[in-house]
C-alpha cells in the first residue's frame, strides 16, 4: 500500500509543474537611495521588477502621487521597471514606490526613500574648552553639526593642516567626535579644532566613504596646569556602550575609553550574562590598535549577547558590559507564494501567512487586493494572532480574481508576499501543436482545458518571433479546438492560445508554439528560448524513470514520515507560540488612516518635537509601548533620532498608541496644532494630486489671511492650526503650511477650501484650476478606463456634471440642465435675463436692452452649441461710463443643442470656451459683484495651440500681455479686420501663462477692453 501511495505521489510530482502564476509577482523592489549633492553623480535610480504573463507594466509614485502627473525638468525617465531621476534636487526627496500590473492583477511594492546627504555648519559661538592639571583625564567636545547619514571625525591643532593621529593616550570617538585624553600633560596645551566630513557609508563598522563636505569647528582651548608630583588615578571608563539594537546583517561599532594615570589598557570578553562565563567571539570581530573600538560585520542573531570590557592599570580596574540585541524585519514561515488558488464561483477564498514570533517586536500584517489595501468587512474577513494572519474572501466571484498580497511590518521594515486567485477561470491550454502549414498560413490545434465555468471560445495570440511587440489576436469558437491563422508563416512565428468563459474570464496562455516547436515556459525562460530535450542526450524518459523511482523509494518513505511528524510538531509549536503571546492577543493594528497621517507628517513631527523623552514616558505609563521600545528610544543621543524611533515603535501599538501620542503632543509638547492635524481624516489620492499639481501656483498666488479665515470659520482648521500657519516668516511659507496641513483634511473640507478661494475674486481662478482638474480626471477614454482630456469634437457633458457649479449657486439662481437645445443669455451683475435660443454654434440674443454707446465684443471658441451675452462697463472719451456687451459662446456638450435654462438674475459668474487646436476647454471665472465681467480664464494642456477671438466694431485694436505690449514672440501673432480680432498662440507653455487683453476704441470714442486669462495645465 505504501509503495502505491509513494508511486502515485511521485508520478503526480513528475507529471505537473504546478499552477502557472500569470498575475504579477514582484521579484525586485525599490531600496533606499542616498544622494550626495557634492558628488559628480548626475542621476539616481530605483528598481522594480516583476514576473507575470503577459509581462507586467509599471507605474511609479512619489508618496501617493502618480509621477505621470508631476511636471519636473528634466523629466522623470522610466524604462521597464527602472525609474531614473536625472539631476536630483532637494524637492525630489521623499518616498517612491511602484505598482506592477497586467490584465490579471496588480501588486504594490514597499516604499523606498530618496534622501540627500548633508552637513550643516558648526555653531560659530566661541568655545570655553577645558582646563585641568597634569595627570587628569579630560575630553574636548566636538559638538558636531547636524548631518546625514553620518560623519567622520578628525582633530587638528589650530593653524596646522595635519590630522592628529590617535595614540595610546588619545582617542577621537567615531560615534560622537569627542576627543578623549586618558591623562594630560603640559605638552597638550593648545588650541584644537574638530573636523568633520560626511560619511556616506551607513554601516558603522566599515571603512567610511566620505563625500564632498568638510567643516571645522571653532577653536577649542585645552589648558593644562603642571602639577608636581603628577597625580595618579585608577581606571574610569567614561566612554562605553550600554545597549545597541541592530538589524541582522548590519555592522556594529562598540567604543570604550578610560581615564587613568598610568594609561589603562583594555581587554574584551564575550559573556553569557553580566559578570558571567566567557563565550567565543564571532569570527568577524576586529579591534582598533589599542582596543578602544571593536567592530563586528554582517551580524547574525547568534552574535547577540553581552560584551564586557575591563580597563586596567597598576591602581585597579573598571568593568562595563554592553548588550547587543539583533533585530530584523519580519520573517515569514508560511508565505502566500505557495497559495495560488483556482476557485469556482461561490466558494470562499482562504489565504494565510505565519511568521516568527520573537516575543519582542510586534508584527502588523496588512492585506492588499490588486494593489489596494483591504478593509475588513462582511466580504473580507481578517483574523490576526501574534504569529499568524488569515484572509477569507466570502462567496468569491470572477470580479474577486486577481493579485492578493500580504505585507508584514515591524519597526525595522516591511516584507511582502504574493498570491494569485482565479475564480471561474479556465485552466491553461495544453497540447498546442502545428497540424498544417500552408503557403502563408498555419493551422494549429490544442486540447480543451479543464474549467470552473462554461467555455465561450478561445483567443489566439500570434506575432513574428523576432518581433514580439507586433502581436495580433484572433478569436475563435469553442469547437473545434483548432484554427487556421491566415497571413502567417509558422516557420518564423510564435502562437499562443487561451480559453475564455461565457462570463468573459480568460485563463492563462498556453506554452508558446515557436517556429513550429512548443517551448515550455518556466525556470525564468522566455517564449523565444530553445526547447529542452527530454531525458538528456535523447534517452527515453521511461528508460531512467523506473530505476530512479526504485532508488528513491527508501528516501521517499523517510520524507513522508518526516512530513507527518513535522506537521504534528508544527501544530504543537504554533499552539505554543500563540499561547506565549496571549498578552498581545487583543492588540489591533493601527488604522490605515492613522498610519497614513504619521507617514505624511513624519518630518513635521520630527522637526517640531522638543521633548520626545517626555512623550515616550507618557506612552510607556499608558502601556502602549513596552520597556524594550523605551530603551531603544532612549539609546539615541540625538533628539530627532529619538522622535524617529518613537514614531517607528508606536505604529505597533495600534490606535491606542496614536491617541496617547496625540495626547503627549498636546500636554507635553504644547503642539495642539500638530495633534489637530494628525487627527484628520486625510484627503483622497485624487485631491492630493490636485494640490500637488498646482502647489507652486497656490504658494505664489493664494492669500493666506483670507484663506485661513475661511478655514477657521468653517471649522476646517482649528485656531491653533491657523496660528501655526500664520507664524511663518513669509507669505510663501504661510501658504506652504496651509497646503501641507490641508492633506490631513477630508474631501468635503477640500471643497470648502476651494469655495473659500473662490470667495476672493483675485484667486477664484485657482479654485477653478483645482476643480477643472477634477473634471479632467473624470474624463475617460472609451473602453480603457485611462483618464484623458476630452477628445477633439467633444464638449463638456452637462448630464455628467462636468461643469463646475456650486450647488448653492444653482439653487439661488434657478439654473437647471435641459436637453432642449436652448442657449442662454447673461447680463451684467443684477440684470435679469430671459431664455435665449440659438442654433448649434450660433450666438444667442439676450432679452433686455443693451446700454447705449457700447461696443459688442465676443470671445468665441467657434465650437459652442449655444451663445451668451455679457454686459460689462466701458468708458467713453468724455469719461462717462457707458454699458457695453460682450458675447461669449459656451460649448456645453458633445451633442449639438444641449444648453442651460436660466431664470432670474445672474451675478458675477460666467463661462466660456476658448478654441485651441480643435479642442474645447471649459473656462469658469468668478468676479466680485459689480466688477467688470470681461475676465475669462481657461486651462490648456501644454503644447496645444490656442486662438483667442474678440468680436465687435472697434478701432485701434491692440493686444496686451499682463498689461504690457505683446512680447516679440514669433509663436504669437495677432489679426484684426475691424470686427473680428484674433490672437494666435502656436503652442501653450507655462512661460506664456497670463492675462491677454484686447483693447480698442468704439465708434463713439469710448474705450473698451476684454481680458482673457490663459493657464497651462501642469
Describe this structure as you would to a colleague.
By secondary structure, the protein is of the alpha+beta class. The protein has 8 domains: 25-116, Sandwich (Immunoglobulin-like); 117-229, Immunoglobulin-like, CATH 2.60.40.10; 232-327, Immunoglobulins (Immunoglobulin-like, Sandwich), CATH 2.60.40.10; 332-423, Sandwich (Immunoglobulin-like); 430-511, Immunoglobulins (Immunoglobulin-like); 592-678, Orthogonal Bundle (Death Domain, Fas); 685-778, Death Domain, Fas, CATH 1.10.533; 798-1016, Immunoglobulin-like, CATH 2.60.40. Helices cover 20% and strands 34% of the residues. The chain contains 17 helices and 63 strands. The strands form 18 sheets. Strands 2, 5, 6, 9, 10 and 11 form a 6-stranded mixed sheet that branches. Strands 13, 16, 19, 20 and 21 form a 5-stranded mixed sheet that branches. A hairpin with a 2-residue loop joins strand 7 (77-79) and strand 8. Helix 15 (747-759) packs across helix 16 (764-778). The longest helix has 40 residues, at 541-580.
